[in-house]
Automatic annotation (TrEMBL):
Keywords: ATP-binding, Nucleotide-binding, Transferase. This is Phosphotransferase. PANTHER family: N-ACETYLMURAMATE_N-ACETYLGLUCOSAMINE KINASE, TRNA THREONYLCARBAMOYLADENOSINE BIOSYNTHESIS PROTEIN TSAE. The keyword Membrane does not apply. One of its GO terms (molecular function) is ATP binding. It comes from Microbulbifer thermotolerans. Residues 42-262 form the Aminoglycoside phosphotransferase domain.
Length: 357
């Protein structure tokens, strides 16, 4: 997850911490400038990395990636692996993985989210779906791409009862509710596990994709890539937590992508109804995770900026759950037990109109 770009903030000695000062000094030495490199703070992601634009020509991005909380070596390895197959991740210009400092190619400020509108969406999504197909054609890398296992997918969904229900809303599930929730999770896991497996970016959405005129898209926030269900990144893009499109268009894009993936050998022939169920249920797994993740970012990490996006995630969650009889008990439970508590939150707006333009 990446925050919206909100411009640059000049970093001066008055507001610099020790790691930032060390990063500035290291970057200057890495580029052999003979001086400390001046940095401007950029919007970050939902993790513990910090990003700064360096005053160089061409511009570079300096990254503070604390090794005790992140994995800089994995970031560098996956960036290199994806670039070998033509994906435009930021080129790593210099890195000290032990200290957690990096200098990266600057891919600019044109997030996909800010470029999307009714006139541009067909062209831009065609580009992003073409790039996704390239990602999904990349072969597995031994010891680099862990399996997006049933256990990991389940752990992600269990963030909802802990961080949304319990910690944010103060609601404790009783035994019957826990059973209902776990039964729903099991259905979603079965659907995920029956899908073909490909490289999964895990956050392939409009805040992590950069529009680059005349060039292939820039791809950010790729360091958590895994080997997992074929519809995961497709649902992440087309059921984006930050922008919504009509169901008919989304399903058309999804089925068009399925046909393209079949032609490319990424996907064996599959019935449209089966593919759409995979797509819907995979998106629901992701949105259940996000319903817990955004509160955790606020309560644990001091990042409240994601909370206003929750109504759209709730809308997706209930729309899909309502559509399938097996999932409807979960939707009913959410509406009856959690939604009244959610509606009291300062950031809440009516989920039924969330994402409307």
């Amino acid at each position: 997850m990446r925050e919206p770009f909100t411009g640059e903030e000049s970093v001066t000695k008055d507001n610099t911490d020790k790691r930032l000062e060390a990063l500035s000094q290291w970057a200057g030495r890495a580029l052999r400038t003979g001086s400390v490199l001046r940095l401007w703070k950029l919007a970050g992601d939902a993790g513990f990395r910090r990003y700064f634009r360096a005053g160089t020509e061409p511009p570079l991005v300096a990254v503070d990636s604390p090794p005790e909380r992140t994995n800089p070596a994995r970031f560098v390895a996956i960036a290199d692996y994806l670039r070998r197959y033509g994906i435009h991740t930021p080129m790593v210009v210099a890195a000290d993985v032990e200290r957690g400092f990096m200098l990266l190619e600057d891919l600019g400020d044109k997030q996909l989210l800010g470029q999307l509108n009714d006139d541009s969406v067909e062209t831009l999504y065609a580009e992003m779906l073409s790039e996704l197909l390239c990602l999904q054609q990349i072969p597995p890398a031994e010891n680099l791409l862990p399996c997006y296992s049933r256990e990991l997918l389940l752990m992600e969904m269990r963030i909802l009862p802990e961080w949304l229900a319990n910690r944010l809303l103060g609601y404790s599930l009783d035994t019957a509710e826990e059973q209902l929730v776990e039964q729903t999770f099991a259905l979603l896991l079965d659907s995920a596990c029956e899908q073909p497996k490909v490289l999964v970016h895990r956050d392939y959405h409009s805040r992590n994709l950069m529009v680059r005129d005349g060039e292939r898209p820039g791809v950010l926030d790729f360091q958590d890539a895994v080997w997992g269900p074929v519809t995961y990144d497709l649902a992440s893009l087309l059921r984006d937590c930050y922008i919504r499109w009509p169901r008919e268009r989304v399903e058309h894009w999804a089925l068009t992508y399925a046909a393209t993936a079949e032609a490319a050998g990424v996907l064996e022939p599959v019935q449209p109804g089966t593919f759409l169920r995979w797509f819907d249920w995979m998106g629901l797994q992701r949105h259940i995770k996000v319903l817990g993740l955004f509160p955790r970012l606020y309560l644990r990490d001091g990042k409240p900026g994601y909370l206003p996006d929750l109504p759209l995630v709730i809308r997706y969650t209930l729309e899909v759950s309502d559509r399938y009889p097996e999932l409807r008990p979960f939707a009913d439970w959410f509406r009856e037990r959690l939604l009244p508590l959610v509606e009291r939150q300062e950031w809440y707006r009516d989920y039924r109109s969330a994402g409307n333009r």
